[in-house]
Structures are given as C-alpha cells and as structure tokens.
Amino acid sequence: MSNFPLIELPTFEDSRGSLTVLEQALPFKIARSYWIYHADGNTRGGHRHIYSRQALVAINGEVEIFINDGIFKENIILKSPIKCLLLEPKDWHTMTFRNNATLLVMASHPYNRSEYIET
C-alpha cells in the first residue's frame, strides 16, 4: 500500500474507445495544466512547493515518480491514463520518463518560480 494517494479516475469504455473524466475527481481546482513529453531517459523535477498541489497522469508510456515527504520515501510507476497521483506541497519529487511517455500535470496554483523548494 502506498503512502501517497493514487486515485482511479472515472472511465467509461465501449466499442468506440475509452473516455476518462477529471471533472470533480481532484481535491482542488485546476489553475494550471501542462504536459511533459519527448523526455525518455530523462529525470525532471527535483523540487517541492510551498503551496501548490499537483495531480499527475501518465497519458502515454511510463513515468517513475520518486517522492519524499520527509517521513516516507517511495517510487510509484504511472503507466495508465486512468491512474492519478496526488502530490502535496511537502512532497519532494522527481519524474523519470520511459516508453515514449507523456505526463499530464495539473496544479492548484499558477506557475510561480519563487514557490519551488529544491533542497
């Protein structure tokens, strides 16, 4: 069992394909969203935040997330577009990309470089 919340997003499937919904699935309003891609073999992140919460979804491929909240350390592998990892501001994290990964990130606050803590 993980010490970090990994939620399953509501998903509807039929012969036409799959539809996954974010509406009302996250515990915060999305103020910023972005995606990271063409990063295979690279590690990004290496910081935590002062106040931003984040939700991460591997839309494609595989992303290994290392998290350290000061008490627990854990590696979580995201490789399904229906799994969403929630990160709190205290969660120092890195993201390692594999298999043509695309990572969708949704944040509770707009970008502000001054709220990043890199140590």
Structure description:
The chain has 119 residues and is mostly beta strands. Helices cover 0% and strands 56% of the residues. It contains no helices and 10 strands. Strands 1, 4, 5, 6, 7, 8, 9 and 10 form an 8-stranded antiparallel β-sheet that branches. β2 and β3 form a beta hairpin. The protein starts with 5 loop residues before the first strand and ends with a strand. The model has no long low-confidence stretch (mean pLDDT 96).
Helix content: under 10%
Please state the overall shape, judged from the principal axes of the Cα atoms: globular
Largest β sheet strand count, sense and barrel closure: 8 strands, antiparallel
Cα-to-Cα separation, first versus last residue: 27 Å
Overall SS class: mainly beta
Describe the secondary-structure layout.
Layout: E1 6-8, E2 11-14, E3 17-20, E4 32-36, E5 43-49, E6 54-68, E7 73-78, E8 83-87, E9 92-107, E10 116-117
Antiparallel strand pairs: 1-8, 2-3, 4-9, 5-9, 5-10, 6-7, 6-8, 6-9
Features:
eight-stranded antiparallel sheet; two-stranded antiparallel ribbon; 10 strands; globular; 56% strand
Question: Concise description?
Answer:
This protein is mostly beta strands and 119 residues long.
